[in-house]
Design brief:
The chain has 28 helices and no strands. With 568 residues, the chain is mostly helical. Helix 8 packs antiparallel against helix 9, helix 8 runs antiparallel to helix 12 and helix 10 runs antiparallel to helix 11. The radius of gyration is 25 Å and the shape is globular.
């Protein structure tokens, strides 16, 4: 960030009308269009595409493999340094560094979607998969540069509004991409519907041309002048390092995505069918498969680290370039924030931990006795509206009260909303209670999400915006993935203890007067009484709220220390 954005809470705060007016500024409106362009291809290359593939008669196994087209979103930090450092020929001089990259990516996404639209999944499945991977890679790259432009286009006080506008555009695109192609396919066919989706990407192009002229982008040079060129050796070294990068990226991405299909396919190609079956079994094991996935993340990261590390005692141009391009952004962050850097990274990792563990909500609603239609109506209609409200509220509070104060309030949002679900568990299948709980949860998660995006944006340094933000955004969900894997075990374990008259049996009287349909299938599904299963859920929601206390403590520590970056 520029120096004018370094002290978010300093100076006089704007009034309410001024804080609201930020949403009508040119940058915020541009961000709405760019958020739409970011969200549209995400759903089209997997979720909506899976409906097309199923409609064409393909198996669920083949359809699931297409989900790997989205793997690039988990690995985008690997090529983010390229976005920070490389110029787009001709166009950069005309539009500037960030906008030229956005325009390039949007053009390639339009091309990729158009190619998908012209492909028959029955006769050219491999070609369609290739086009989907292309769109996934370019779309992830577009996310990198849109995030970088958003951060560099506005001061910290306005980052909340920028993040809110981005999320609004993104959510609108997700709705459009999830509904419109299916409706159009009934009348005009899938190919035509995808062609129309390609044309809708022009909304992002309009956003690029409507964006204000950006400031001159700083590209930090990598000095290789002291290393004599050796074309043959450098070429071989580049090939070897890039091969290791791909290998590490596949292992790392398979761990982050929780899908070992690419690893298994690689082993199959090498004739190691046993190894392919074994890695698939490890990844899919319940509940301990998540630790195999975490091991994949660690192993892949180590391979990437050694691929980028200079060879001991040997100076080479590839080693120098990769070590600086990938290592300097992280070193820059630690140099600017010093001892507070570790505390800041810890806060990013745990800030939304209480939200990430709520991966069993649909089973919870069904166990309570709500119908699928009731759940869908409340979650998809009221939930979306409340989420949009929460996102906007977060942006307003950041503009009105400052980023750090809003971050502290946002840290309370997850734990409080989780306690509301504990209250819901003892209400029985009352539709009004479900609406209250989901409404509060979506407002809270929208608010906290906006605050976290704005905070991570404020941490980036000049010349490394794309790379550092890509690293932060990959980091913040990693711990939640590990903890969330144990959610079901915690519910059933607490229910068993309650059924045996243990500590959590203190909650069972809360369920004495509930309708008989509440947790009616508890004995069949979990082997416990309905009251015991309800106690298990209450225990889980209290536990998830307590996890959020870690984020609250860290948020207060960061607010008290108010760490400011050193120049550099």
């Amino acid at each position: 960030m520029t120096t004018e954005t370094q002290a978010p809470d300093a100076g006089r705060k704007p009034g309410t009308l001024q804080a609201l007016a930020v949403y009508l500024e040119r940058r915020s409106l541009v961000m709405l269009a760019l958020g739409f362009a970011s969200g549209l291809p995400n759903l089209l290359i997997f979720d909506t595409l899976s409906a097309w593939l199923r409609d064409a008669g393909l198996s669920l196994e083949v359809i699931a493999f297409f989900g790997l087209a989205t793997l690039a979103y988990s690995l985008k930090f690997l090529w983010a340094p390229l976005v920070d450092r490389a110029k787009v020929p001709v166009v950069t001089r005309w539009l500037g560094h960030r906008r030229s990259w956005m325009l390039l990516c949007q053009g390639l996404i339009v091309l990729g979607l158009w190619l998908i639209a012209g492909t028959d999944p029955v006769s050219s499945l491999g070609l369609m998969a290739l086009f989907a991977v292309l769109v996934g890679f370019v779309s992830a790259t577009q996310d990198i540069v849109i995030d970088a432009w958003r951060i560099e286009a506005a001061v910290t006080e306005k980052q909340g509004a920028m993040a809110a506008a981005y999320q609004w555009g993104y959510r609108i695109a997700m709705i459009v991409a999830g509904v419109l192609p299916l409706a159009l396919s009934e009348y005009a066919g899938w190919n035509t519907s995808y062609a129309i989706m390609a044309l809708l990407m022009l909304i992002g192009v309009l956003g690029v041309f409507g964006a204000p002229r950006e400031a001159q982008h700083e590209i930090r040079a990598i000095d290789t002048g002291d290393i004599p060129p050796a074309p043959a050796r450098d070429g071989l070294e580049w090939a070897a390092r890039l091969l290791l990068f791909v290998l590490g990226g596949v292992v790392l991405g398979s761990g982050l995505a929780g899908n070992a299909a690419i690893l298994a396919a690689g082993f199959q190609a090498l004739g190691l069918a046993g190894a392919a079956a074994q890695v698939t079994t490890l990844w899919e094991a319940k509940p301990w498969g998540v630790f195999a996935q975490l091991a994949g993340v660690v192993l892949g990261a180590l391979v990437i680290f050694f691929a980028a590390r200079p060879a001991p005692g040997l100076k080479t141009r590839p080693g120098r370039y990769l070590s600086v391009a990938l290592g300097e952004p992280l070193a820059n962050f630690f140099a600017r924030y010093g001892k507070a850097a570790g505390l800041i990274l810890a806060l990013i990792c745990v800030y939304r931990l209480s939200d990430f563990v709520l991966n069993i909500m649909n089973p919870f609603y069904l166990d309570m006795g709500y119908t699928k239609i009731e759940i869908a109506e409340v979650r998809k209609v009221l939930g979306v509206v409340m989420s949009v409200l929460g996102v906007g509220l977060g942006g307003f509070c950041i503009a009105r009260f400052g980023l750090i104060r809003s971050m502290v309030v946002g840290a309370f949002a997850g734990p409080v909303s989780n306690l509301v679900f504990a209250w819901l568990a003892v209400q029985g299948p009352q539709l009004w209670a479900l609406s209250v709980a989901i409404g509060i949860d979506n407002i809270a998660s929208g608010f906290a999400g906006t605050c976290l995006i704005a905070y991570m944006s404020s941490l980036t340094g000049q010349g490394f915006t794309a790379t550092q933000y890509a690293l932060f955004s990959s980091l913040y969900a990693l711990l939640g993935k590990l903890v969330a894997s144990q959610s079901g075990r915690i519910v059933e374990g607490a229910a068993a203890i309650a059924d045996a008259g243990g500590l959590f049996a203190a909650f069972t009287p809360l369920f004495a007067g509930l309708p008989p349909e509440t947790f009616a299938n508890a004995m069949q599904k979990s082997g416990v009484t309905p009251a015991a299963l309800g106690s298990g859920y209450v225990t889980f929601f209290i536990y998830s709220a307590l996890l959020g206390v870690i984020g609250i403590v860290l948020a207060f520590l960061v607010a008290r220390l108010s760490p400011q970056p050193a120049e550099g």
